[in-house]
Amino acid sequence: MITGKFSKVSVICGFVLLLGFFLLYRFYGSPKINEVLKVSPVIMSKAIDSSRRNKVSGLPEKRRRLPKALIIGFNKCGSSTLRTFLTIHPDVVTPSQEIRFFNDHYSKGLEWYRRQMPRSTSRQITIEKTPGYIKSLKALKRIYKFDPNIKLIAIIRNPVTRLLSKFAHFQARKSSYANMNFEKRLFRKGYFEERVRKSSDYLSKVQLVYSLFPEDQLIIVSEEDLEADPLSLIRRILSFLGLRSTFSDDVFVFNETKGFFCVNKTHPLFPSVRRFVNETNGCMKDDKGRKHAEISQDLISKIVEESRPYVEKLFHVISVNFNWSYY
Ligand SMILES: Nc1ncnc2c1ncn2[C@@H]1O[C@H](COP(=O)(O)OS(=O)(=O)O)[C@@H](OP(=O)(O)O)[C@H]1O
């Protein structure tokens, strides 16, 4: 009698134990835990994080962590503003500089790369921005080797304004450009086609990424959207990164003098981007948002005609039309 009861209890205990092991494996052993629980990786890591606290202060432990996402392109397309605006999010940290690890400093090793990163808690993700990565297959291959699941972000821009932006950049930096005329520069012997191609051929670079990574690992956004409605664009990227949107509508304010959206200085999240923006108005510093040269309609038409094939093919391949002026 006792033996019978005892064996029944053992069977039940064995069953409960097995169920326990199964549930443990299901929730903690499986990489799809976030999908099963239907929570974002950040919320999940936050839960895990609470156990990883500094023993003395009780605060979450901070250390330098390698990036989980990269802004890989393109220069003069708003990449710095994008990086800055993403940094407002409490779960995002970014280094202030372009680190250029995968293209220029690879021989310094991963530990060097890690040392360039700001400290973060395990619930935060590190995002690094180097717009030159997308131009180099070698760099992209190294990124793939580093983390084949890394999230990639590319921002592109109307080729006409990108050309003007590049010119304004050189005018501000090189004395030889100071009194130069944009049109004369653009048409310098056989230079026009090459210049326009460099400013509008985003597709060949995007295809380098597609040759290595699944297409849904790369989000392509437009500078025009960042300029017109940063809040919506940043929310889209946060969702792509699996981060919850904690931004309230008043985080950006349009600054009439600058002519761009800036970070609201009275917003509680402002301190996280203080180092990236102008202290007085919360706008990007003066090297962003420069005045562009005025150009004739005729010149615009010539640039558009030359760049249209690149733009149309790009929109076709990525199945997005950014509604750029003139195209
Ligand atoms: N909110 C806001 N504030 C300031 N600037 C803004 C903003 N949104 C987009 N932009 C545009 O960003 C352009 C600079 O692009 P990048 O940061 O990629 O330039 S760089 O390659 O890092 O030098 C920069 O180009 P320029 O206008 O030629 O300076 C801006 O037009």
TrEMBL record:
> One matching Pfam family, short form?
Sulfotransfer_1
Residues binding 3'-phosphoadenylyl sulfate are R157, S165, K288, G289, R290, K291, H292
* Cysteine disulfide links: C262-C283
| Active-site positions on this chain | K76 (for sulfotransferase activity)
- Could you list the residue ranges that cross the membrane? 6-28
Q: Name one GO molecular function term.
A: [heparan sulfate]-glucosamine 3-sulfotransferase activity
Superkingdom of this entry's organism? Eukaryota
Which residue range or ranges hold the Sulfotransferase domain?
Answer: 67-303
> What keywords is this UniProt entry annotated with?
Disulfide bond, Glycoprotein, Membrane, Transferase, Transmembrane, Transmembrane helix
Q: Which PANTHER family does the record associate with it?
A: HEPARAN SULFATE 3-O SULFOTRANSFERASE-B, ISOFORM A, HEPARAN SULFATE SULFOTRANSFERASE
State the name under which the record lists this protein: Sulfotransferase domain-containing protein
The top of its lineage is: Eukaryota, Metazoa, Spiralia, Lophotrochozoa, Mollusca
